[in-house]
Task: structure prediction
Amino acid sequence: MSAIDSKVVNIDALKLEHFEKGDTFACDAVRIGPLLGAKDLGYSYDVVPPGKRSCPFHSHRGEEEMFFIVKGNGTLRYGDETRKIRAGDVICCPTGGPETAHQIVNDSDAELAYLSVSTMMPAEVCEYPDSKKIGAFGGSLRHMTRTEHDLDYWVDEVLFIR
Result:
């Protein structure tokens, strides 16, 4: 395979993996970035069946995301607002708190497919306003907690003398 051919893939040739969680979340998806050798951007392709969502409502503190609707239509949840979306729409989801939380919902009767592109940071914190969770991710660390589990910085810290 030539260098240029290794940097191009057609979405029709992608092998999608099925994901399903409960009655709300389902999609067929693939991470494209690793297939193409991407270093600083993450690329994904998601196909969401009618009545489903691919991920929880969330915001990012470190990574910015962009979505391009390839086919179908649905609803974008963004902060406290909703908006109908359709094929050809480009969606910007910058970093921030609950005011930039986002989720794509397929509330139509046909598949909704989109490409997502995100900056790839070595560490990330995500907030999930619906479930009141916070996730911290970096390297092999993946930790989820509830927002009400707030601890003071100095709790359980002791002086060790050697």
Observations:
- The longest helix spans residues 33-36.
- The mean pLDDT is 95.
- The helical segments are 33-36.
- The first strand starts at residue 17 and ends at 21.
